[in-house]
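Hi V.,

Quick status before I head out on leave. The structure for the redesign project is tokenized and pasted below; the design run finished overnight.
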């Protein structure tokens, strides 16, 4: 069994146009994202090489681009899209994504509203062994 370790990127902030209201779709607002990726970090721990782990810089840039360049009505859809970005990285087994809208258009004062979801990378389906080849002896 492979070890499951965690890579975290917390408090990623970017502006994007996500929401149901016309104003939310037209004017960017602040979002904050927390990521927890389950990854086997044993190779990186042995090698001390960036190539053997998740590159935090590339990861956070990809998340910020998703927030800034894409547009969704629901934060649930945005969180799912960010999860897909994370799961596309080599070695990521699962991810927990929290997305918070920092200035939600609600009738009371709140610090933020948001969602948290968990997604797992699809497992490769093992192929059954090929039938034995008949011998012509």
């Amino acid at each position: 069994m492979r070890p499951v370790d965690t890579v975290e990127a917390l408090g990623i902030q970017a502006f994007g146009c996500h929401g149901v209201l016309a104003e939310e779709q037209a004017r960017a607002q602040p979002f904050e994202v927390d990521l927890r990726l389950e990854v086997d970090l044993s190779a990186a721990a042995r090698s001390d090489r960036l190539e053997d782990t998740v590159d935090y810089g590339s990861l956070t840039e990809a998340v910020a681009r998703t927030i800034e360049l894409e547009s969704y009505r629901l934060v649930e859809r945005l969180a799912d899209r960010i999860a897909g970005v994370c799961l596309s990285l080599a070695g990521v087994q699962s991810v927990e994504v929290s997305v918070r809208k920092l200035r939600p258009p609600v009738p009371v004062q709140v610090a933020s509203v948001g969602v948290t979801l968990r997604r797992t990378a699809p497992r490769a389906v093992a192929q059954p062994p090929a039938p034995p080849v008949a011998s012509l002896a």
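Above is the designed sequence. The chain has four helices and four strands.

G. will cover questions while I'm gone.

Best,
W.
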